[in-house]
Amino acid sequence: MPRISGVATEDAGLVLRLMYRFARRRFRAVPEPMAVTAHHRKLLTATVLHELAVTRASKVLPANVRELAVYRTAQQVGCSWCVDFGTMLQRLGGLDIERLRQIDDYASSPAYTTPERLAIAYADAMTTSPSSVTDEQVAELRAEFGDAGVIELTYHVALENQRARFNSALGITDQGFTSGAACRVPVAPDEIRAAG
């Protein structure tokens, strides 16, 4: 249970109800961080617009590389919501989620390619406090992904650190996206029927 409950559908205004409907169509549930952030309408709007813009702009890195780095960041911060949601996004994106079980052994596991290993190691280095990124590490990444690819990777790892720390601080935990039981955000009965 989050430290601040999300705004229930029946308590939402028209714009928030539309946002909830869009989220429900896309993810089959309203993401709990969205419902919690709804207490601050302007920050919710900024967050939604930012996430949409980042998704549209992120076309340099292969999706598997980007998503593995984001997943690893969430895992390292300890955000169970982000791990749950990230697993669902990878599955919906057609990526192999079975290999996520081996991510702690990414450096030696044959389930990961060299570019994936570089990205996961970078996510680890960026997520430690203080950051332990080295010049050599960035040079390897530049050789593999180019400058734009390194910027995209860095941006996504930094963004996931922000998301994961926000969720952890507010006690937002896994919502069941991986299991298919994702619907803890209160919704009106007529919307449950419409979503299903």
Outline the fold blueprint.
Layout: H1 14-27, H2 32-37, H3 41-57, H4 63-77, H5 80-92, H6 114-127, H7 135-169, H8 189-195
Helix pairs in contact: 4-5, 4-6, 4-7, 6-7
SSE string: HHHHHHHH
Low-confidence stretches: 182-196
Mean pLDDT: 91
Overall 3D shape: elongated
SS field, number of helical segments: 8
Task: Kindly describe this structure.
The protein has 196 residues and is mainly alpha-helical. The chain folds into 2 domains: 9-57 and 177-195, no CATH class; 63-169, AhpD-like, CATH 1.20.1290.10. 62% of the residues lie in helices and 0% in strands. It starts with 13 loop residues before the first helix and ends with a helix.
Q: What's this entry about, in short?
A:
The chain is mainly alpha-helical. It has eight helices and no strands.
Give the tags:
single chain; about 200 residues; mainly alpha; AhpD-like; 2 domains; 8 helices; about 60% helix; elongated
